[in-house]
Amino acid sequence: LAAGTPGLGLIHGEVVKFDLAGRLQPDGSRYKVPQMGWNQVFQSAPAHPLWAGIVDGAYFYFVHSFYARPADARHVAGEADYGARFAAAIARNNIFATQFHPEKSADQGLALYRNFLHWKP
């Protein structure tokens, strides 16, 4: 999809497809799309309450070909890198959305769910 593709959601922005054709990762292998694997997520400051007890740079499991690009960068709650930095989590008011799969992300995913259960936005 071309840049400017609208995405259904509650935070204004766009949905972008990874454009990594012909690019190589630091280890010399080609980037694959869809990407399936573990990426570090770096929390944006100030830290969102759902990140409580989760180490900055913790690994989460991703399965994706697209990512969200919010119109307002202040809504980015966490970023990851796969050929370029992208929003791995977005937050606004009582909304917290992840690009990764918490349910497949071991202890850090369970911690995120636990934090959600106790969150009072």
What does this entry look like structurally?
It is a single chain. The protein has a single domain, classed as Class I glutamine amidotransferase (GATase) domain (Rossmann fold, 3-Layer(aba) Sandwich), CATH 3.40.50. The chain contains 1 helix and 7 strands, in the order E-E-E-E-E-E-E-H. Strands 3-2-5-6-7 form a 5-stranded antiparallel beta sheet. Strand 6 and strand 7 form a beta hairpin. The termini are far apart.
Output the keywords:
mainly beta, 11% helix
- What do we call the CATH homologous superfamily? Class I glutamine amidotransferase (GATase) domain
Low-confidence stretches: none
Secondary-structure element series: EEEEEEEH
CATH class: Alpha Beta
Biggest β-sheet description = 5 strands, antiparallel
User: How much of the polypeptide forms β-strand, as a percent range?
Assistant: 35-45%
Q: Label the overall shape.
A: globular
Give the total of domains: 1
The number of helical segments is 1
CATH topology: the name is Rossmann fold
Alpha-carbon Rg, integer: 14 Å
Q: Helicity range of the residues?
A: 10-25%
Question: Gist?
Answer:
This protein has 121 residues and is mostly beta strands.
Topology, please?
Blueprint: E1 13-17, E2 35-43, E3 58-64, E4 66-70, E5 76-81, E6 85-92, E7 95-98, H1 106-118
